[in-house]
Design goal:
With about 550 residues, the protein is mainly alpha-helical. Helices cover about 70% and strands about 5% of the residues. A two-stranded antiparallel sheet has the order 1-2. Helix 7 (about 180-215) runs antiparallel to helix 9 (about 240-255), helix 7 (about 180-215) packs across helix 10 and helix 14 (about 355-385) runs antiparallel to helix 20. The radius of gyration is 23 Å and the shape is globular. The relative contact order is 0.10.
Length: about 550
């Protein structure tokens, strides 16, 4: 039995403990050591996640590199891991982004100034910050690899704890004099919303176990349960399946976030550091949309089809609503947050369109949105740290004094509006095509989100980067070497996957096909098939 998946999950977890246990960062050299250790651990995790993706055979079994260890035997709970194509690419995305977040946040946890005796207060801030990032990475990777429903639930909920402290304890220094109170409010709101979703899901998990145990399936093993539901040996009544589906879906919709359960996101992203904001929207929130594919559709196929039209309408509202609010924002980070709400609407729409194009596009969208939004938000963070303000009105003419910063910000903006040739275009196109083939009206209206995305992305660039140079911008330095090391890989991947997405599609398509077979869905036949004449010529 391979232990590659367990090792990939254990390395960041052990790294978090090691980082937290290092001597307190009372001087710059010691803090640098702490950061270097954490960065090295994230680099090892990246190598392991890449090995998992490389060893995954798209033509092999649904779940590969499987591991299973007895955990709570009396309830049939195991520490079971297995990877499919979707989990492999999302875990790799997580492993790619975490080192970028660490580099971008290199000084975010440094003490602002020495105390009266020359020593720094809160000496353990550096350890805590980087240890929490590694803890989030470990829990997210376990969630993508977990094949035991209860194991997934535990880590789905556990990741809220380090995220709560990252939001509440390490906020944006450009937040103003009332930032501590607002940061605390954002962290509590994030926690309460997601805990509520988790408690509803826990009730559904228990309900599923009770029903399964009554029919001789006293287990939380996902392949066993989905196989039994598919072949009819585990029977769920329509009412039971609908109730359990809603319990799972509610938790995932909060984390995703889907309108109208989204209101925690702008507060959390606005008050957090830029790196933490990337962890929220590009890493943690992806667990919600991933779980819709793996758990909602796999365990409750009939209920998924029953509620799909309603979910598509909510997704459509989220697309338009998020984009409209992004257009009207005065705060850069809140604009990115509302843009993300719109993008998550596209992802969820692709999942519940239940077509191969839609679900492949949704999976690619998770990856591409993670890369493009990370680049956009991190460059915005560099901009904000230089000016000390999140307000769009405080900027202007940045491209004249910091052309490299402005250029990378432009690429992030163009990726956000899904410009052809950049990665998000491929995924958004597939989602729209996949939706239109089954729900043409929803597909047509959803294109409004593309128009609005062009509006808020280009307006943001115009107002901050062009025009006369504002007084507070004149002395703004361009990107430094460390910052370029953060942005360059993200920009390169965004361009590469925009012109050559085949490596990702080859990985995810078999898993998408398996998901569609679980819900007994096939792609709709073309409305106007082309008739072929004898000899293979077309009329």
């Amino acid at each position: 039995m391979s232990v590659l998946l367990t090792t990939t999950c254990a390395v960041p977890a052990a790294g978090a403990v090691l980082t937290a246990a290092l001597p307190a960062g009372s001087n710059a050299a010691r803090r640098r050591t702490i950061k270097t250790v954490a960065l090295a651990v994230s680099g090892v995790t990246l190598v392991l996640a890449a090995l998992v993706a490389l060893r995954f055979d798209p033509h092999g079994a649904r779940f590969q590199l499987t591991e299973s260890y007895s955990w709570i035997r009396s309830f049939g709970i195991t520490f079971s891991l297995g990877v499919d194509g979707i989990g492999a690419v999302l875990a790799l995305l997580t492993a790619v982004l975490v080192p970028m977040v660490m580099l971008a946040s290199w000084h975010d946890a440094d003490p602002a100034a020495p105390g009266p005796d020359g020593s720094f207060e809160n000496k353990r801030r550096t350890q805590a910050f980087f240890a929490l990032i590694l803890a989030v990475e470990a829990m997210v990777v376990v969630s993508f690899y977990a094949t035991d429903v209860f194991l997934f639930y535990v880590f789905f909920e556990a990741m809220l704890i380090p995220m709560y402290f990252l939001i509440g304890g390490f906020g944006d220094r450009a937040g103003g004099p009332d930032s501590a109170r607002q940061r605390s409010y954002a962290a509590v709101k994030f926690l309460l919303y997601n805990l509520l979703g988790g408690l509803v899901m826990l009730a559904a998990v228990i309900g599923l176990y009770v029903i399964a145990q009554e029919q001789g399936f006293g287990t939380f093993d996902l392949p066993t349960l989905t196989g039994a539901i598919a072949d009819g040996s585990l029977k769920l009544s329509g009412t039971a399946q609908n109730a359990l589906f809603l319990g799972f879906f509610f938790a995932f919709a909060v984390k995703a976030p889907l309108w109208p359960l989204h209101t925690w996101l702008p507060n959390a992203m606005g008050e957090a550091t830029a790196g933490t904001a990337v962890l929220i929207t590009a890493v943690v929130d992806k667990v919600g949309t991933f779980a819709m594919l793996r758990f909602c559709l796999g365990l409750f196929p009939d209920a998924s089809k029953t509620f799909a039209p309603a979910i598509l309408v909510l997704s459509l509202i989220g697309i338009v609503y998020g984009a409209l609010l992004a257009v009207g924002q005065k705060d850069i980070k809140r604009l990115v947050a509302y843009a993300s709400i719109s993008h998550f609407g596209f992802i969820i729409m692709g999942v519940f369109a239940m077509t191969s194009q839609g679900q492949s596009g949704a999976t690619l969208y998770m990856v591409n949105h993670g890369l493009s939004t990370a680049a956009w938000m991190l460059v915005a963070g560099f901009l904000i740290s230089r000016r000390g303000s999140r307000l769009i009105a405080d900027y202007g003419g940045v491209q004249k004094v910091a052309p490299v910063l402005a250029g990378t910000f432009l690429i992030g903006s163009l990726a956000t509006l899904s410009l052809p040739g950049l990665a998000p275009f491929v995924s958004e196109f597939l989602v729209l095509v996949g939706t239109f083939t089954r729900y043409p009206a929803i597909g047509v209206v959803a294109t409004l989100g593309i128009v609005l995305a062009a509006l808020y992305a280009l307006l943001l660039y115009q107002r901050t980067m062009t025009g006369p140079v504002k007084e507070g911008v004149r002395a703004m330095p361009d990107l430094k070497v460390r910052e370029l090391a953060v942005v360059a890989p993200l920009v390169a991947l965004t361009i590469l996957l925009g012109v050559y997405p085949k490596p990702l599609t080859d990985l995810v398509n078999p898993s998408v096909d398996a998901t569609l077979s679980q819900v007994h869905r096939t792609d709709p036949a073309p409305a106007h098939p082309v008739a072929a004449t004898s000899g293979g010529e077309q009329k």
